[in-house]
Amino acid sequence: METSSIARMKELVEKLNAAGKAYYQEAREIMSNLEYDALYDELLELEKETGTVLADSPTIHVGYEVLTELPKEQHESPMLSLDKTKDVEELRSFLGSQKALLSWKLDGLTIVLTYEEGKLQKAVTRGNGVVGEVITNNARVFKNIPLQIPYKGKLVLRGEAIITYSDFEKINASIEDVDARYKNPRNLCSGSVRQLNNEITAHRNVRFYAFGLVSAQGVEFNNSRLQQFLWLQQQGFEVVEYKMVTAESLDEAMEYFKIQVEKNDFPSDGLVALYDDIAYGDALGATAKFPRNSYAFKWADEMRETVLQEIEWSPSRTGLINPVAIFEPVELEGTTVSRASVHNVSILKEMQLGIGDRIKVYKANMIIPQIAENLTRSGRLDVPAVCPACGKETKIKRENDVEVLICPNPDCQAKRIKAFSLFVSRDAMNIDGLSEATLEKFIGKGFIHDFGDIFEIEKHKEEIVEMEGFGSKSFENLLESLKKASHTTLAKVIFSLGIPNIGLANAKMICRHFQDDIDQILHADREELEAIDGVGGVIAQSLIDYFAEEKNREQLKHLMKHLQIEKEEIAGESSIKGMNFVITGSLSYYENRGKLKELIESLGGKVTGTVTKKTNYLINNDTASGSSKNKKARELGIPVISEEEFRSMIS
After folding, report:
1. DSSP 3-state of 560
2. CATH number reported for the structural domain that contains residue 346 in this entry
3. How much is the pLDDT for 630?
4. Is residue 24 pLDDT above 80, yes or no?
5. Cβ of 504: how many Cβ atoms within 10 Å?
6. Per-residue pLDDT reduced to its tens digit, 127-177
7. 254 plus 133 within the same structural domain
8. Do strands 321-332 and 155-162 pair parallel, antiparallel, or not at all (unpaired)?
9. For position 599, which CATH number holds?
10. In this structure, is residue 65 part of a structural domain?
11. Is residue 56 part of a domain?
12. Which of 240, 533, 618, 619 is least buried, going by the fewest C-beta atoms within 10 A?
């Protein structure tokens, strides 16, 4: 019996350590929170039963290993993890006859701050609990950390750095590359806090909430953690929201937190109870991993049983084809859910998922839908042999001890998402309603193979209006946008193809030279292209190489069937022909800089982003400002003119 228990412990340690490494060091998930907790609890029970704790057990080794180039520092005292429960009665038993502060268990990155002579001297991450990373420069740009406080003695305190859900969504929305977006606020916070460049940290809106005072020389707190919290607030710190509770008042406080967690804009994964009586809590000491003066409570996951209807295989630009479970919709934590990521082929196989299986689903930390358990484990599921985006053969590959499905085809449409994103962008075809995420879904479903397919999207209407995030109104808006985009200029078409080295300005020069005749452009030789003002050997060769490919010519031919090309008026002699302009500052007459740039180029002028000796005029309504561009223009003797002066010039 002993031998089998030890063998199981070794198996659990290996699994848990692998999951911990993946989550903390590599920002990826190889098992659900629920599964991790269950295996962790099983390991704890076996350790109690056998009286043995293996050297590499996660029950005594906590936190991530320090991997960055940030300076390292050992903590004055080890930062232990917290023992936890999902049972309110167990938490009540912990309270006993004591009063405690019940507060949010924030889900971010724990930081230790040190102040001396009233100033922030040092900030160190929790790290592995013994050694952390020094992130003082980054902490100085957190949104709400006081850099100077009234207290002049040495102060050491602990707290959590977090990023709110609203800031998380804004930051993710600003990242065009879908695969580069952060999975959750904790990952974003961790990456933001541990930056080598604190300018990046400053833009991430990181906030700090104190949850524990370690030491403050010469300050009397009357043996009360509550007094410590109040004192920290007086010093200018924001402390984690808390309520003073006893065993008798626990239920009322728990009800408050249960309701409030759904309204919070910040991530939390439970609650923490901390004895108010400092001496009592300290006298209890600690285990190898847990302090005995505090206890964590994790919400019992709301679980629903449902039926697996489909596994949707979603290709991405990295070549990975990710499985997503589609199931009969259920209500969880106040919202309807019908999808959950399965993450990879290994998890799919381990759960023996099959269409029609009865599964249990929940929201990890009350947020992210996950499959907790497969009740029927039929295994009736085939991993696709071909990529849903390009139809080429797929392969199962082992990466970091996990099996993943990949598409090895270098020409897979899903890998060309950047090209499609450029095609629909404002300066190109200007198609509203096709975000990068939407394009990725359409490509993954096999709706789009080349640019022309975008204008034939109506043939997939029935499937699209049923997709999550889409409906009849969204689809009609998309069709209207496509109709509008089909009336365009040849220069925008050439630019939208994404030919290397050819920007919109170059495309306009080429199209003007050939009077918007696409056949002449397709058959132009290098000598003829190089003769165009502003087109050198590199641009000429890029154009020739692109149209030398049969598939590129066919793609353009397919696209042109859906377009009505409007010829740009060829400017005659104008007062600004051949002149170089730079535009800066806000505009009042012209809609935006892009519109003014188009006008200048239509009149034969050029617009660049930097003031140089070749610049003829800098357009800036604030002609007297001390901006860097104005200073540079004055140094070079270049006139700074307003919009009105420019309008007078062209009229």
Report:
1. helix
2. 2.40.50.140
3. 87
4. no
5. 19
6. 888 888 899 988 988 988 888 899 999 999 999 999 998 898 888 877 655
7. yes
8. unpaired
9. 3.40.50.10190
10. no
11. no
12. 533
Q: Is position 105 annotated as part of the catalytic site?
A: yes
Q: Please give the DSSP secondary-structure letter assigned to residue 4.
A: H
Domain that holds residue 600: 580-650
Catalytic residue among 10, 21, 72, 105: 105
Instruction: Find where tokens 């630019």 sit.
Output: 495
pLDDT mean across residues, the chain:
86
In this predicted structure, what is the pLDDT of residue 438? 87
Q: What is the three-class DSSP state of 507?
A: helix
**Residues 28-50: tens digit of each pLDDT:** 677 777 788 788 888 888 888 87
Mean pLDDT of 177-201: 78
Give tens-digit pLDDT for 589-621. 887 787 888 888 878 788 888 888 889 999 998
Q: What is the pLDDT of residue 203?
A: 83
Residue 459 lies in a domain: yes
80 and 208 within one domain? yes
Q: Confirm whether 107 is domain-assigned.
A: yes
Helix (H, G, I), strand (E, B) or coil at 204: coil
Judge if 254 and 274 occupy the same domain. yes
From CA 126, how far away is CA 73, in angstroms rounded?
A: 10
Q: Which of 450, 544, 530, 532 is nearest to 500 (CA)?
A: 544
Nearest to 440 by CA among 312, 315, 311: 315
Do 284 and 150 lie in a common domain? Answer: yes
Residue 359 vs residues 302, 340, 367, 371, 491: alpha-carbon distances, Å = 14, 12, 18, 7, 54
By residue count, the chain amounts to: 651
Do residues 549 and 627 share a domain?
no
Q: Do 437 and 519 fall within a single domain? A: no
pTM beyond cutoff 0.85: no
pLDDT in tens, 237-249: 999 999 999 999 9
* Of 485, 514, 531, the domain-final residue: 485
CA quadruple 446, 450, 451, 456: dihedral sign:
negative
pLDDT of the residue at 66 = 46
Place of tokens 């933001």: 192
**3-state class (DSSP) for residue 201:** helix
Give the tens place of pLDDT for each residue, 296-318.
998 777 789 999 999 989 887 67
User: 275 and 322, same structural domain?
Assistant: no
Residue 527: predicted pLDDT:
87
Residue 506, SS3? helix
Report the alpha-carbon distance of residue 253 to residue 260 in Å, rounded: 11
- CB contact burial 342-375 (16+ within 10 A = b; e otherwise): bbbbbbbeebebbeebbbbbbbbbbebbbbbbbe
Q: Do 117 and 246 share a domain, yes or no?
A: yes
What is the total count of domains within the chain?
Answer: 6
The pairing of beta strand 72-74 with beta strand 131-133: antiparallel
Residue where a domain stops, chosen among 431, 450, 485: 485
